[in-house]
Automatic annotation (TrEMBL):
Lineage of origin: Bacteria, Pseudomonadati, Pseudomonadota, Alphaproteobacteria, Rhodobacterales
GO cellular component, one term: small ribosomal subunit
Xref: Pfam families: Ribosomal_S14
Xref: Gene3D superfamilies: 1.10.287.1480
Any one GO molecular function term: rRNA binding
Organism of provenance: Rubrimonas cliftonensis
Family indicated by similarity: Belongs to the universal ribosomal protein uS14 family.
PROSITE patterns given in the database record: RIBOSOMAL_S14
The protein's name: Small ribosomal subunit protein uS14
Keywords assigned: Ribonucleoprotein, Ribosomal protein, RNA-binding, rRNA-binding
Subunit structure: Part of the 30S ribosomal subunit. Contacts proteins S3 and S10.
InterPro entries: Ribosomal_uS14, Ribosomal_uS14_bac/plastid, Ribosomal_uS14_CS
Function: Binds 16S rRNA, required for the assembly of 30S particles and may also be responsible for determining the conformation of the 16S rRNA at the A site.
Amino acid sequence: MAKTSMIQRQEKRVALVKKYAGQRARLKETAANTDLPMEERFKARLKLAKLPRNSSPTRLHNRCEVSGRPKAYYRKLKMSRIALRDLASVGQVPGMVKSSW
């Protein structure tokens, strides 16, 4: 199980990303528009830099929905390999059978 503080930190980042997504998109669009004057584009870059760092989507990290583990994460299942193995052993993952040879 991951540390509770790390899971809470991740949830806080997710909330900040959602909160600032529209504002961040507008500022990026303004900064990338070559038709606008250089001063206006530069001001947009400065405003973008003043936004909280944790509002950037690149600060997010995939975490297991079951255990909160950050490593060995399967995107399709949204869980780690260890949580998947535990659920499969109990028989809660349909179609998954433990192999032995």
